[in-house]
Amino acid sequence: MLPAECSRRLVAELRDALDSCAERQRQLEQSLRVSRRLLRVWEPAETPAPEPTPGPEINEEAPSSACPPSPQDLKELELLTQALEKAVRVRKGLSKAGEGVKVPSLKSGSASTATKASAPPSTSRCTGSRAPETKPPRGVHHPWVPTKDLPGRRLLLVGDGAHMGQGAGANKTEAGLRDQQIVPQAASQVPEAFTLKDKGALLRLPEAFRKAASRNARLWAQLSSMQTGDSADAAAATATATAKTQFLQKMQTAAGLPGSMLSTAEVGRLQKACSMLRLRMREELTADPKDWMQEYRSLLTLEGLQALAGQCLHRLQELRSAVVEQPQGLWPEGPPRAALPCGGGADPVWSPQLLLYSSTQELQTLAALRLRVAMLDQQVHLEKVLMAELLPLLREQEPLGRPWLALCRAAHCLLCEGGQHFLTVLQDEPADRLSPP
Amino acid sequence: MGRRRRRRPDPADAARALPEAIAALSRTLPAAPSPETFRRAKFDRPEAAPALWRLLFRVLSPLPADGALASLALEAQARWVKSALRSQGYPRRALVQLPDEGSQGARELLLALAWLLARGPLPERLLTQSHVRLGDEMPVCECEALASPGLPAPGVEAEGCVDIRHVQWLTGKLRLRWRNLMAGQQEQCALLGKIHSYTRGCHSDRSLGHLSVPETELLRDPEGGRQLLQLLEKENARLEAALEWRRRELVFWQWMDTVLDACSPEDSPPTFLPRIPEPEAGVAGLLVRELQALQEELREAAEARRAAWQAAAGGHGPEWRAARRALQAAVAQDLAALQRSWEQDQGRARPHGPHRLSKKN
């Protein structure tokens, strides 16, 4: 059994590591959920209510009670569908020439009212549907039923009359209303099921969103240029900077505590120093000097590195002792682990940056490598902790005793084999112990 | 913006400038109290203190406020704020001496906020942190990997002794979790690739070429899209407030000078300094051991080479002296460059931060 303090620290570190892994997993699962849902057939936003709720656009006619469409209506719609399909074929020919399909954009104002799979009819739609040869109906309020222009879409009337295509270009408001009523009663298998695979290229972002996004980008650019100081009012900028510096100095001189403290940034810097020194040392030790000049240079470098390491150590110990000498009792336990600003806080203002990739394979490799780096980082940290905790224990305990052997074996497994392989420890009877016959 | 006319400063303007600056600050910071609270804080009114504690907590916490952090009691938040400020090097002791229950010290808290604002571009940093992500983002640096997520769990159970096998079991569990994570990540990348290909040609911005998951999601789910739009518009409002704050902040600093003067001077440091041992396994403790080990390794290697060198010292020609000096200079330069690489922030040289993924043909 490990001593209490040691146990507590080890378990705490491992729990931290497990928690951070769990957090990543949680975020990943959320992203996976969203992505999977996008690639499936898109359902209506809510499950169809027993009664349709007509949006505010539908004002004149009260929704009639659910009744099957009259045969006359159905016939009209059928004719309309055929006309539309013809138009589709024509347009397809045109669009192949690079025109691109005009897809009606989602009006964000109506987004909240568009509850069902069928769109509330509007006058523009009606007029649009009257002239199917010229243009596809505009102003359709549902993004995933973007146009009627797609070939092969069975819009209407698959014979049994119970189906009514959504927004099948009803030229009457009532027919449109009946759309709304009938579709929820229709089979859940909506003929125009929208999948990203088939119809993704037709989507368009809503106008309001595009405006907000471009305004957002513009404001960030303004903020960024103000940061870098190429604004028109240079005099005011310098005056502000001076005022700030003076304020900070006043705070410092009126202070009761020394300024230099063992801050997180300082520790980060020294950690970086340590790893860079170590890397450099490794380079020097593995290099093979070819002549005496290189040998001498390598010697000087090693001695220089040793001096630098000593300096860093000295600084670290100095700062730590300063911490200890403060009335520590007044301050709460240890600084919280704040996230280091990315890039050392080089550029706090967001700016749009792109990362281009050309194949899924590339993206997967990139992501896998990043994850591997994070994992190795965590592992390195844990090994440092394990070394710090277990090695002193090994030194303290009596060697070759039973508990010592068990600890040795475990420590070897954890530190040298990454926790994957276990040694077998055999007790070997030395020959002279055996009593001669 | 056109050239600004130089007008004679109107006293009415001057009187308005400070409230407007404070109002801009209040609009750009997340969860900021009303401008009136700032005024009250100057006069150390007790009702201003809790709001300022909460503001400082929100501003200093590394992650945007999620449920767990936001629900901490005021007392816990106050303690955390003190600790965070100290670890950043906050110089005034008066802050420490404030009672945890959070009803006093509004003026000191105001000074702390001003200190944070003066040290760096705080509103911009906060805005970047909470920026609405419209694209599928992936960081291109490893800074995130080094930072530990969130606060240490407040309820650290006092465990008894554990067996080493429990430790081994925990490491095995960790390994398994990583493996699951990696598998999931591969799937996510494949799905992203598909979504990007299927929506090619949809984006109004030609350089992007296709939609991202948030954008596609907003098309699929209009309600979610509306919420996204609202967030975007809120961010736009905060950005405008930040721009206004930057234009007007000079008058705020002049005001803060008066606030600082209104404070009583701090007492000299107490003569009795209790010595409290630092836990050896803290991050700094680990680093000390590492540096010590490194120094030892270097010493051994250097001594061995020095000995070998001196043994073979005889066989060098007369050009030895000049060559030696040149080598010394070269090595000194080399090491100075190495030292600079961790002393200064080399952040600008390498790309940092999340980048938006974009699939090209």
Provide an overview of this structure.
Chain B: Residues 341-361 are annotated as: Disordered. Chain B: Residues 89-261 form the Tubulin epsilon and delta complex protein domain. Chain B: This is Tubulin epsilon and delta complex protein 1 domain-containing protein. Chain B: Residues 349-361 have a biased composition (Basic residues). The complex is a heterodimer of chains A (437) and B (361). Chain A is mainly α. Chain A is built from twelve helices and three strands; from the N terminus they run H-E-H-H-H-H-E-H-H-H-H-H-E-H-H. Chain A has helices at 4-39, 71-96, 108-111, 123-130, 173-185, 196-199, 207-227, 234-253, 264-286, 292-325, 360-396, 402-416, and strands at residues 41-42, 194-195, 354-357. The radius of gyration of chain A is 36 Å and the shape is extended. Chain A starts with a helix and ends in a 21-residue tail after the last helix. With 361 residues, chain B is mainly α. Chain B is built from 13 helices and two strands. A two-stranded antiparallel ribbon of chain B has the order 1-2. In chain B, helix 2 crosses helix 6, helix 3 packs parallel to helix 6 and helix 10 (213-220) crosses helix 11. At the A-B interface, helix 1, helix 7, helix 8, helix 9 and helix 10 of A face helix 5, helix 6, helix 7, helix 8 and helix 9 of B.
